[in-house]
Amino acid sequence: MSIGKFVCVFGLLIYSWAAFGQTKVFNLITRMDGVMLTYNDDSLNFWGFGFDQGSASKITMPAPLIEVNEGDTVIINLYNPAVEAHTVHLHGLDVNQANDGVPTTSFFVLQGDTGTYSFVASYAGNYIYHCHVTTVLHMQMGMFGPLIVRPAGGANTLWTGGPSFDKEYSWMAYDMDKSWHDDYTAIGSFVNYFPDHFMINNTGSDNIYTDSQVRINGLVEENILLRIFNTGYGKQSYVFPEQLNVIALTSDGRQLPLADTLDTLEVYPGERYGVSLSGSSALEDTIEIYYQSLYEEQLWGMNKIPVSLIEVIGLSHVDQSGLMAPVVYPNPSEGSVSISGCLGNTWDVILSTSTGKLIMKFKLSSEITNLDLASLPAGFYLFTFYRDGERIYREFILD
Amino acid sequence: MIRFLISISLVIISHTTPCLAVDYHLYINRGYIAVNTLDSVPYIAFNESQNFSTYNTVLKLVPGDTLNLRIENTDSIGHSFMVSMPLPNPVALYPGIDTTFSIFFPDAGLYSYYDNTGLNRYMGLGGMISVNSFTGANFYWNLRDHQADWNRDIALGINVDPATYLADHFTINGHYYPVLQNDSTAIVNGYVNDTIRIHIANLGLMEHSFHFHGYHLRILASSSKPDHVGRLKDSFPVRTMDNLVLELVPQQPGLYPVHDHNLVATTIGGNSPGGMIMIISIQ
């Protein structure tokens, strides 16, 4: 075989491997003894799923992300050491009856047993996996998580051939009644549901402001994908800033027939959306989420999620490796400053005045670093980022 | 020759669009709906006979039909008849009196009819008018939520406070799961590759979010969100007074649940499972 033919055959093998999917195995474990601190430092009991890592297994609420590609054969082994039976329902994935995770029509995973679910991921999109045993209780207690199917080969698009994105965020939003978590045997009736905690992923309220997985930091003209999952029992109304261009592109794992430009998005229990966000000018604002009852839209609670779009003038914001270079925001600032985009690299950073006087020198490698510069006099400053001979400048105004 | 062609055309038109006057005779009946195996609460319904049924008659028409409706109010109090559209004003239905009137339905669609006085719609008085030429399998879901104590109080003429409403019973066609499984008008039953339509009217006080296991369905009509028509989804908001028509073309066989994903509505009297759940069957 000539080298040319060999390269062709090898290339085809690689292509078919990427295009037609792989077999991906996820080993999950259940526990009913989780304890976490909520955003207001309440101790919250929860049940959940985690990746099975033997004695190091840890459950989270929401459960860990399961991420696969279109065409993959997905195998989920659920080991259940917990005292009650559990299942995995693959919400929205249209699996066959045997793998649907509903005990009366498929099977229970009893204490000490391992149950196996398998399916082929047919459509890129946003999905949920959750327990379907006494669902009203088990889901409220935390037995749910996100499942994302990416296009074949893991393309950075919402669907095969769809628009690409510079970055993405996943918001799994839900309401909780803490009294159920304190002692579910004391609630008396499942209609006694009066939510008092309003979550996005595992946070809420003011803690969102420092959570880089939730708050949106981007650049002007970037395409940002927001994946939304409602795993609560009420309606969520997402109110977007006017300056943000918001387009709903997918829902429930399917492309919408018409892209829907919107300023408010209502998401009902069990629904998922894929939403494109972009801005043509710098922006410091919030997206508001209203958590509402399904009776007369009574307001239960709300969250505000900061959105920051930074305009970078005269400097390339993407380095040669494709990784984000540092950005400084807000700019101007009244004293509190964040630096993002350093994850995966270590930068030496110098902060100096506009006349070159050194103020501080430090190293950065985390996703977001917050600095308090309120003690400095108002004026122009310069951040200089050094790495492997590369040098990037960021001008900065302190009001 | 031209006369012949015109005659043939008229025959074809009259054959394909059989616009007719369609007569229905309804009765307003009082009775009870079961809220568990031991208990029941007062309910009112529009039925096709003087025997009470929780099933509000579905009035079936094709576009261009005129509905000739005769309603006997067998109740001791006055009621009314309202259609979400195209009847702009309610028709008064006096106790013990027959009332006859006609409504023209030029367009295909799903409409709700109901008594718009007081809480009579909440108490059960309301159903669907389905106007379409579809000849495949149709299923009908009339959604309602109830607080059992409210039904008892309202039937006795006692005022209730809307601010304290806490629904504890959730029904489709007046039935809760698992009793609902016996309702052949609601429980989808079909074959792979069938084209099936599900007609949903929410005549209750609460909104719902119906999730289908196993399948994605296309929205054919939505009174609250007409811009959502054409979307292919597995979870469907059903807003209060919403009329929704979904098309299911099952790609696989199986027994699959459909349920409200406000999971509190999958209970009955506070117990799980119950309420707004059903198991559909595709062979």
Name a few traits of the molecule:
heterodimer; A: mainly beta; Immunoglobulin-like; six-stranded mixed beta sheet; 7% helix; 45% strand; B: 283 residues; mainly beta; five-stranded mixed beta sheet; 8% helix; globular; disordered N terminus
What is the helix/strand order of chain B? HEEEEEEEEEEHEEEEEEEEEE
Number of domains of chain B: 2
Largest sheet of chain A: 6 strands, mixed
State the shape of chain A.
globular
Q: What is the largest interface, and how many residues per chain? A: A-B, 43 and 43 residues
Rg result of chain A: 23 Å
Strand order of the largest sheet of chain A: 10-9-12-17-14-15
Number of domains of chain A: 3
Number of strands of chain A: 26
On the 0 to 100 scale, the average pLDDT of chain B is: 93
Architecture of the largest domain in chain A, according to CATH? Sandwich
Cα separation of the termini of chain B: 51 Å
Unreliably modeled segments of chain A: 314-323
Number of helices of chain A: 3
Helical proportion of chain A? under 10%
Counted by DSSP, the helix tally of chain B is 2
The CATH superfamily name of the largest domain in chain B is Cupredoxins -  blue copper proteins
